[in-house]
Every structure is written in structure tokens, then in C-alpha cells.
Amino acid sequence: MTGVLIRQASHVCTMDGPDLVDCDILLADGVIRDIGPSIEAPDAEVVDARGMLVTPGLVNTHHHLYQTLTRAVLGGQDALLFGWLRTLYPIWARFTPDDMALSATLGLSELALSGCTTSSDHLYLFPNGSRLDDTIGAASEVGLRFHPTRGAMSIGESAGGLPPDDLVEHEEAILEDCIRIIDAFHDPRPGAMVRVGIAPCSPFSVSRDLMRDAALLARDKRVRLHTHLAENDEDIAYSLEMFGCRPGQYAEDLGWTG
What DSSP designation does 156 have? Predict the structure, then answer.
């Protein structure tokens, strides 16, 4: 068996029982194969972990990797959610596929260097020919286990939504691309390196029909659903005004639970 053998870690933090001392860990095919003293694996790459602490990899359950390049933008840092988004939408609208890939690579590399081994990504805007494929490719290069979600915005300002019209998509095209991404990249096996989800951005940027159809498609394809709900008081107030209920109830009414 090839793989990586972490040799003689001074402390192993298990998170589910007593910590281990002076312990070996054998990794192969993307999973932990064995933990214990004096593991024999002659073909494995050996990492000397004497004097070191080994912890489980961190899991990042929500991220927007395309936003890595727009940190600390003046005018947005002290704004509430809607004001922050309106500040950044025009910048994001100019992003190219190369910008998306660079931002994802930088964000994923930072995560890896911080001890994260699994990350999601909620990508919901696709300017200038950008596709989720670019972000999936970046994750493959960095080496993180990746749960990308195909997000979407379909209700622009002219129709009462928050995002500018040039960042929204037609709903039929959104669902077709969700199917394309799932068929091309989703691996349903436990521990897979890529597992795709469906992720309409939020109740203030997509229609009722898209929220409902996304849930139906996710069940049909047996993939996960992801979105933003009740991010702050603005979000809740919008839902109460537009839908007559709070965001969680809105999602439940459209088939997102159970």
C-alpha cells in the first residue's frame, strides 16, 4: 500500500475520545487507513511528526471563494448586508473566468495552510463567461476535498430583487447548468473529492419557482441544497414584507425541508 505515513506524532487530537501520544497515522486513497503505534507501511511517504500535534482537518461549510479578491473594499466594510452587496456587485460584474479561478485558488490555498481539508463554495454569479468548472479546477490543483454548489440569482433590480440585472440569469438556463455540473463532476461516493450541490442564492434574489424547482432537482439528483436564510434583520424584514413569513418558513413551504 502506498500513501503517507505520519510517524510518531507527539500528540493526536481525536475529538471523540482520549488523545493519543507517540502515534502513527497511515493515509491512503484520501482516507485514514490506520492509527496506532509502529505502523508498517514500507512503500508510504514518511512524515516525521515528532514534537508535533496532529488534529483532524477543519471543515468549512460555507464560503464564497470569488470574494477573496474583494476584501476590505472601501465603502463596504461598515455597511449592512444589502449596502455591502450593492457596493461590490459592480466590481464582481467585471470579473473574468481567470479572476474567478485566481480568487478561488488564493482562498483555497489560505484554507489549506490554516488546516482546512474540506471546503464548500457557494458561487452564485457568473459574469463574462465564468463557470463553476473554474473553481472546481482550482480545488483540484490545491488538493482540498471540495463541495461546490451551483448558486444562482434570477431576480434583478428591475423585477424587485437586489442584484443588478446584468448579474442575473434565466431560470431555465440555471437549472440546465445545474444538471450539467452534477453530471460532469458530482461523485456520490463517501469521501469523494468533489460533491456538487444546488444553491439558489437567497429569497431576495431568486423566484419562488426557482426555489421550488431547485429542491425538486436536488432530490431527483440526490445532491444537497444550500442557500442564505435570515442573514440579518434586513433579510428577515424583506421576507416578511414580500412573502408574509420568515425566511425559514418560506423555505419550508417551498419544499426545502424533510
Answer: -
- 139 neighbors 195 (Cβ within 8 angstroms): no
Is the separation of the CB atoms in 130 and 65 below 8 Å? Answer: no
CA distances 43 to 31, 34, 146, 186, Å, are 16, 15, 28, 31
User: Strand locations in the chain, DSSP E?
Assistant: 4-12, 20-28, 31-36, 45-48, 53-54, 58-60, 116-123, 145-152, 197-200, 224-225
| Span between the terminal Cα atoms of the chain, in Å | 42
The set of cell numbers assigned to 130 is: 465564468
- Determine contact, residues 146/196, Cβ cutoff 8 Å: no
pLDDT of residue 1: 65
pTM of the full predicted structure? Answer: 0.90
Segment 186-215 shows an average pLDDT of 96
Cell numbers of 80, please? 449592512
Nearest to 194 by CA among 73, 66, 108, 99: 108
Which DSSP string do the residues of 130-153 spell out, in sequence order? --HHHHHHHHHHHT-EEEEEEEE-
Confidence band for 75, pLDDT divided at 50, 70 and 90: confident
Instruction: Walk me through the domains of the chain, giving residue ranges and CATH numbers.
Output: 4-56 (2.30.40.10), 59-253 (3.20.20.140)
Nearest-angstrom CA–CA distance, 185 and 218:
15
Residue 30 pLDDT grade (very low, low, confident, very high; cuts 50, 70, 90): confident
Identify the sign of the CA torsion 13, 15, 19, 21: negative
